[in-house]
Structures are given as structure tokens and as C-alpha cells.
Design a protein that fits this description.
Layout: H1 2-31, H2 35-42, H3 66-75, H4 82-107, E1 117-121, H5 136-146, E2 150-154, E3 160-163, E4 166-169, H6 175-180, E5 183-186, H7 195-201, E6 204-207, E7 221-224
Parallel strand pairs: 1-2, 1-5, 5-6, 6-7
Antiparallel strand pairs: 3-4
Helix pairs in contact: 1-4, 4-5
Amino acid sequence: KVAEMEKILENTFRNINIGLANEMAILCNKMGIDLWEVIEAAKTKPYGFMAFYPGPGLGGHCIPIDPFYLTWKAREYNYHTRLIEVAGEINNEMPNFVVDRTMKILNRYQKSLSGAKVLVLGVAYKKDIDDYRESPVMEIIKLLENYQANFELVDPHIPSFRLGEKTYETVELTNKKLKEADLVLITTDHSAFDYQQIADLSASIFDTRNAMKDVKDIKAYYEKL
């Protein structure tokens, strides 16, 4: 029992702290503050702070699922796990926040999301893997389809995948794809992506992973989560 609860505690700890980072990302966006810079500053404290980062949502088989199992189990003992559920709500809303920000960036160019060419970089739920279980990109895809965006997906680790009854094929990241896109949406920070190439050729970039942090010269219009 202790071993099983330990695993759930660890995943719930991460879920809650990522939820805090995501809520701070929403607030910092409204306040015009770079959250990634805030986190880097907070990391300089030698004790009492552990860095967690925002993103387009949670993925994988453990972190998004274990805490909700715990909330379900807690009801058998007549207990309501409020903090866990609120963190889950925040994390589950991040795909909507990402697509809303995408819309607002396109609006700067008098473009609507409907019909816009959006190049989505990353299907896997985290960098350098081929696992897309519970990936937040699945929800982002559904939202882009609802808004009738003209989107393509790039993931060097996932040539194709199933979502519902539909099979999606990913495409190769080329200069032509980058130049043609109205917006490049970075959802997974794979090491295989050439971020300097992305910076040089894209018109507009929305980076949900701070993947471009080491790029020195970004010619495109650029926003971070």
C-alpha cells in the first residue's frame, strides 16, 4: 500500500506543481511578465524552491491519470481532494489557453484561425520520445479542427497516430513548410528540431515549451507561453 501510494503521491506532487506553473503562465501573460525568466530567477534560491514549468497541458500515462484515481478513491472514504482537483482543472484547460493565444497572435496579422496555416511541431507528450498517450496535442488538434484551421503536424518520432476513428500523418519539417505557415506552434521541444532554422524562416512563432531559449536571433514575431 505504501509503495502504491508513494507512486501516486509523486505524480500528484508533479501534477499540482505543474498546475501552479500553468496558472502563473496565464497570470503572467495578462501582466506582461516573462514567467520563464521568473522561474530562472526563483531557481537561484539555494533552498525551498523546485522548478516546474508550464506547457500546453499534461500527457503520459501517470501524471494526468494517477491524481484523478486518487480523487475517485478518496470518495470511498468520504473525502474531497480539493487541491488535486483544482490543479487538474487548470492543467486540462491549457490546450484551450494555447489555442486562444494562437488566435490572438494570428489576429495581429488580421488573420482568423479558420483557414490559417498552422504548423504544429510535436505530437509526443514530452521531448525526444514517441509516446503520445494523453498528449495535450490531441486536444489541441480537436480544437484546431473545430476552428477549421489548415494545420499540419510535425514529429520526427511519430510518423502517424490514431485519434478517435481518424489516422493522422505527420510531415517533414522543411524550409517550404516553415515559410508557408502563418504560425508555427511549438508543442513539444524535440532535440531534433533545428530551432535556428525555425527562427530564420517562420513568420510567427508561438512557443509553449521555451524551446527557443538558446536561439540568439529570432527574426519572426515570437511569443512564449
